[in-house]
Amino acid sequence: MQTIFRGRHFINLEDFTKEEVDTMLEVSLDLKKKFAMGTPTPYLLHQSMFLMFFEQSTRTRNSMEAGFAQLGGHAGFLDSSSMQIAHGESAKDTAIILSRFGHAIACRYCNWGYGNKYLTEMAKWSTKPIMNLQCDLYHPFQALADLMTMKEKIGDLKRVKVSIIWAYAESHKKPISVPVSQVLLFPRYGMDVVLAHPKGWELPDWVIAQAKANAEKYGGSVTVTDNEAEAYEGAHIVIPKNWGNWVTDQTGVAASGAVAVVDDKLKAQKSWKCTEAKMATADKNVLYMHALPADRNNEVEDSVIDGPHSVVYDEAENRLHTAKGVMTLLMGGR
Ligand code: CP
User: For a pocket test of ligand 1, which of 56, 60, 133, 290 has the largest count of ligand atoms closer than 8 A to its C-beta?
Assistant: First the structure.
């Protein structure tokens, strides 16, 4: 177990060793047990933090806000559109001021080409931990909660086949940060990761190269395919979820924003939906996971997400426990 976390930034799980990620999971599990037993956990008493959001959120905002209150602190929600950021105040000035006012700053900024750079700039100037609540590249809190859920349900993850599968959606252009974080993290636990998507929805080459290097180091594997059936076949875990086409979106408007959500290119991929028939080709105990929000009846049939293989609510609940684990280590550890 590693114990040196205090004051560090939490932007990408790749910045932490596997042993450190294991510690995050152990602390999260301990906090989960205490939550279930009603045992107080006042590890961050009288601390304050700031939660800055450039985009909407249900799980991330509330897991941080409720989680921090349960640790004895107070989290202030900041809508970036009502901050002086809207008048052009820099990441540097914002980070310096807020870090003087409190004990941590957490931020969601998914705009393609901007989000990660903004967080990195804040981390350069903040005297307190910066936590990534999802940027254009990474969603570390989500990937950590996913990993915790898998370990709870399956135990040892070595050689477990997990398929991260692109799915059709019309609700909004979802960032690539969830599949990127998952494809980087899961091979570190020796899993056989299959990444399946139609042509045109590739993840960046450097992500695949890093994921394969992780697999090489930890004894897993990474396979990239445009064959959806191959991804479902015999899978122990499936994660069918939409992500935007960053390759074309990066030329103009943000991947999370203003271009039309549904176009002819997207509509041609409507068959990439998680159905009961596809689930029947997976392992008989297959787990269905989704970070949520799900675009029901586009990404997935109701009978799957509401069915016996789905663990989406346990997965969402673990966002609370992992958020508390990470905040405790970064803000309360030695
Ligand atoms: N999964 C996730 O990050 O959910 P929110 O967008 O609701 O925070």
Answer: 60
Task: Give the domain extent around 40.
Answer: 13-139+318-332
User: Is residue 215 one of the residues assigned to a domain?
Assistant: yes
Task: Name the amino acid, one letter, at 238.
Answer: V
State whether the beta carbon of 142 lies less than 6 angstroms from ligand 1.
yes
Peptide bond preceding 179: is omega within 30 degrees of 0, i.e. cis? no
The model's pTM:
0.95
Residue 89 vs residues 32, 68, 146, 200, 235: alpha-carbon distances, Å = 39, 27, 35, 36, 48
Under 8 Å between Cβ of 71 and 97: no
For ligand 1, the distance from its centroid to the CA atom of residue 322, given in whole angstroms, is: 14
Instruction: Report pLDDT digits (tens) over 2-25.
Output: 889 999 999 999 999 999 999 999
What is the spatial distance between Cα 98 and Cα 41, in angstroms, rounded to a whole number?
25
Does 4 reside within a domain? no
From 108, 134, 182, 317, the mutation candidate for ligand 1 (largest count of ligand atoms within 8 A of CB) is 134
- Asked if 108 and 136 touch (Cβ cutoff 8 Å), the reply is no
Are 174 and 303 members of one domain?
A: yes
Share of the chain above pLDDT 90, in %: 90
pLDDT tens digits along 33-45:
999 999 999 999 9
Domain count, the chain: 2
Q: What is the CATH number for 200?
A: 3.40.50.1370
Q: Collapsing DSSP states into helix, strand and coil, what is residue 225? A: strand
Q: Are 124 and 144 found together in one domain?
A: no
> Rounded distance, CA 121 to CA 9, Å?
12
- Distance between CA atoms of residues 131 and 103, nearest Å: 11
Q: How many CB atoms lie within 10 A of CB 326?
A: 25
Residue with tokens 């016996």: 308
Token digits of residue 230: 């191959």
Q: Residue 194: beta bridge partners? A: 163, 223
